[in-house]
Amino acid sequence: MTQFYFIRHGEQDWDIVEKHNLKGQAIDLIPLTQNGINQANRAAKDIRICGSDIIICSPYTRALQTALIISKNTGIDLSVEFDLREWQSDLTFDYDSKGQLIELWHDYLLHNGVYPQGEVKPWETKENLKKRINSVLIKYSNYSTVIVVAHAEIFASLISTDEILHCSILEYTQN
């Protein structure tokens, strides 16, 4: 049975979004703050992840940067998995502001990630997210211990928890 260690990316620099007026997928390019870098360095020293077989991560900059810091500090190889990308708030990739992103997030939460009967929303359902993530984890089921660096909502789709802090480490065994 594979032991997964889920690590949420470090704190991202939202100021860059405003400064550069980033829209849509460009928002996914923002890097970590200095605090986020420090969080990733601390996570890399956690004894639970020492000796892991591989690090897999989301292709988003904040997750990649976090995973690279952990890889550098631990010497564990890293593989990028496209399907570990963040929950898709807008499947058309047309959202154009942090405010709209927050609106879509609130709508998702209001409906618990399920489209109301007879309606189609722009966001990815919780069930689709869960299937996407599980399809990635299954690919690594031949490993003993895997570090997964990605996003809070990805992990929340698999684990019931109130809040997932930046660079927190959650243990997960796939059923």
TrEMBL record:
GO molecular-function term, one example from the UniProt record: phosphatase activity
SUPFAM superfamilies from the UniProt entry: Phosphoglycerate mutase-like
GO cellular component, one term: cytoplasm
Gene3D superfamilies with a match to the protein in the record: Phosphoglycerate mutase-like
Domain of life, source organism: Bacteria
One Pfam family hit: His_Phos_1
Record-linked InterPro entries: His_Pase_superF_clade-1, His_PPase_superfam, PGM_Phosphatase
Protein name: Broad specificity phosphatase PhoE
Species for this entry: Clostridium gasigenes
